[in-house]
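User: I'm curious whether this sequence folds into something compact or stays loose and floppy. Could you predict its structure so I can see for myself?
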Amino acid sequence: MSARRLYRESAGRRNFKAFTVTVKETDLWIAVPRDGFTETLPAGIEELVWRTRRELESYISADPEFARTREPYLVPGNAPKIVLNMVRAGNAAGVGPMAAVAGALAEIVGRSLLRHRDQVIVENGGDIFWSAVEPLKVAILAGSSPLSKKIALLVEPAGPCGLCTSSGTSGHAFSEGRADAAVILSPSAALADAAATAVGNRVRCPADLEEALSFARQIDGVAGAAIICGDQVALWGRLQLQPL
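Assistant: Here's the prediction. I'll summarize afterward.
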C-alpha cells in the first residue's frame, strides 16, 4: 500500500503533525494531533522502538527458530510483549510469528501514543495502525496488477485498528503466493499483518480469490479483506474500494 503520500497530503487538513522515526530497518511515519505533539515526542518514540527491537532481537538470539519458522509457534508466557503479540497473531492466522513483526511494532507504538491522545496514525513499511475520527483512505500498490495505484481503500472510523498488506509480486517480504496485494483490516495490526501473509499465500491466480477471501473471513478478529490478483479484486467487510 502507498500509505505515506495520502497521509502527508491529508495530515495538515486534519490538523495533524507528522514526523518520522528510523531505527535500523524500522522506518516509521507517525501523525498525531498538533495539540498532542511535543518537541520531545520523536525522541521518546525512538527510545521505545530501540527498546522494543532490543527485546525482540535478544529473544531471537536465544530462540533462533522463532525467526525461521513459517508455522504457528509456542513461546513462554514471560516472553517480551512484542514476541507474545507476534506469536498470538501468527498462530491465529496459521503462519510464523515474523509475519506479524511490522504490524506488531506499529501497534505497540500506536497504542503507547493513544494513552495521552485520541487520534494517531503509525505506518511501518506500508503496514498501518490507525485511530482517528475521520475515514482513512489508502492507495493500493498492487505489484504488476493493472489496478496498482489506480484504486484506494476507504475505512470508516471504528476504534483503533490495523490495515496491513502482503504481496507476492512486489516488495521484500516473503510470500508463498502470487497475489498482487492481500490487504487485511483488524482491530489488531499484528493480526492484520499475519493474516495478510496467510491470505496472500493462498493466491496463485485469480481463480484462487474466492477461496482466499473465504479463508480471511474465518480468521477470528479479521474485520475486512481486499485481495487483488491481476485485474481481479475480491472484497469483504469494512473496506470500500474507491478510484484514485
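Summary: Residues 3-243 form a domain with the T-fold fold (CATH 3.10.520.10). The first strand starts at residue 16 and ends at 23.
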